[in-house]
Amino acid sequence: MFERLSEHGREFEDKTREHVNEYADAGLRTLILAYRELEEEEYKDFNKKFAEAKNSVSADREELIDEVADNIEKDLILLGATAVEDKLQNGVPECIDKLAQAGIKIWVLTGDKMETAINIGFACRLLRQKMKQIIIHLDTPEITSLEKAGDKGAIVKASKESVRRQISEGKAQLTASRGSSHGFALIIDGKSLVYALGEDMKTLFFELAVACASVICCRSSPKQKALVTRLVKEGTGKTTLAIGDGANDVGMLQEADIGVGISGVEGMQAVMSSDIAIAQFRFLERLLLVHGHWCYRRISTMICYFFYKNVMFGATVFLYEAHTSFSGQPAYNDWFLSLYNLLFTSLPVVALGVFDQDVSARLCLKFPLLYQQGVKNVLFSWRRILGWMFNGLCSAVIIFFFCTKALDPQAFNSDGKVAGYQIVGATMYTCVVCVVNFQMALAVTYFTLIQHIVIWGGISLWFLFLFLYGSMSPDVSTTAYKVLVESLAPAPAFWLNILFVVLAALVPYYSYSAIQMRFFPMYHEKIRLISKEGGRSDDPEHGNTMRQGSIGLSTMGSGTGVEEERSHSMEPSFQIRR
After folding, report:
1. What's the CA gap between 48 and 21, in Å, rounded?
2. Residue 73: CA count within 13 A, CB half-sphere
3. What angle do CA 228, 233, 237 make, to 5 degrees?
């Protein structure tokens, strides 16, 4: 605002600057007031140009609006300044602290003055007393005198050189202090950000920013917030989340991979432009650390399980075709093929993706490093997917050979008849349905009534379908005609075969899980184990050991969490607007 004042409108400039700095040091949000009297013709001309710029559909619409505004917002007369107290919501410092412990890199993009932003940074624990601050600004005597003189060309040249020099000095500080346990914080104002985001300088700025533990961009315009978010998203290739509560945050929320809007006193523009809406900032902790972890694990396990059950089903068909010398003899009835994924095995997977919880919400919040499982993609790697597919192949081989070797060479019923392909196919299909659902029961870590219903109901539904379908006329039921009532149910070999097949097919998965749990437990398995033991999860010393020894974080920059010496991962990046 000060650079827009006229020469005769600067009477109270020095005093106002002093007051504004005092307000900002106290953590208050400041507003500078100035005015200019317009002639009617001048206003009409401005209004016409502003309407044309606002209604423009060209790519440079924002630049046109800024140009028109700059032409009218000049030669102002200073009135004074105001200050208001804007307290942080309850739980904000604790929330940011937990997110930092989870390995989330946090950037604050705010429109406040630098002094106010720094005070807010300390209040929300983003900045700490021992952290070294790299401050980039243009409030220098040289540039201030150029602003008063009104030489725009000289201002731009001097500002660009100053920003480049300060960025280079900041990188030199980082290099000289490499290995320091306290970390660095980068603080940059909106004027400097204009040049730092330029094509010739944004790479240098980005390299400096990602090497710092915390970044605060103050006096940022809505466009700058969006550009910084884009820079982080494209520069790191990581997932970015932006959170804001006002109209100034709309661009940032839309630019980020995930936009979280806070509904509050500043209107609903942010909420309407976001992907997720919450009522208070502190709810972000539970959204990410609890529901974020749960959803990641649910979706990962659900997809792996889809591969497992379909590989197993398809492999039994292939093995049977090979067994019959690829004669075209079908292993299963046509309706069996159609309803496998539709009725008998689909609902347990859906229930897993909705209700399963590997650890409780309390433990997710107590051990925020659990969030790193999603960052490192521990549960959805190619190794894990191929492992589930191999498990499905092993189960298919066990089912096929048990069924064919147990049923083919001997009498199936008391009348001495051997099992035909209808009986072998129905038995094999029954084993597939049972193994898939029992495997699901082993994979589930948090049983609800709905999961019991869909898992055991899937098996019951298969037998009910086989009974009803087999009771229809042979023209409809074809190869399944009375196969359950007359052939399968009365035969002890059928039930014994199911029992042994299910046990044998689950042995590989159960053995692998037991060995892994005993010798190579994953982080969530350790947490679940201590929660079952009782008491130890509330032991602070044991909790610190768990946090430090289970998931190694990839390092980028220096840490800002409770333990400042711990480095944090860069993924996902996280933007906050205040």
Report:
1. 38
2. 13
3. 150
112 is in an annotated binding site: yes
Helices 114-123, 13-25: axis angle to 10 degrees equals 10
Tokens representing 575?
A: 């933007």
At 416 the pLDDT is 55
Question: Any idea how long the chain is?
Answer: 578
Domain with CATH 3.40.50.1000 in the chain: 89-281+552-578
Is there a binding annotation on residue 245? yes
pLDDT of residue 576: 54
Mean pLDDT in residue range 404-423: 66
What is the DSSP-derived secondary structure letter of residue 264? B
Is 549 annotated as contributing to ligand binding?
no
**Which residue, chain included where needed, has tokens 């001097």?**
158
Distance in angstroms (rounded) separating the CA atoms of residues 353 and 450: 12
- 178 assigned ligand-binding residue: no
pLDDT confidence of residue 248:
86
How confident is the model at residue 564, as a pLDDT?
37
Residue-wise pLDDT tens digits, 1-25: 777 888 788 888 888 888 888 887 7
Neighbours of 408 (CB within 10 A): 15
Six token digits for residue 267: 């209107």
- Does the annotation place 225 within a ligand binding site? yes
The pair phi, psi for residue 511, each rounded to 5°, is -65, -45
Q: Tens of pLDDT along 278-311?
A: 989 999 999 999 999 999 999 999 999 999 999 9
- Say if residue 203 carries a ligand binding annotation: no
Pair of tokens at residue 102 = 């989870």
Residue at token pair 């010496």: 565
CATH code: domain 89-281+552-578 is 3.40.50.1000
Q: Is 248 annotated as a binding residue?
A: yes
pLDDT value at 558 more than 70: no
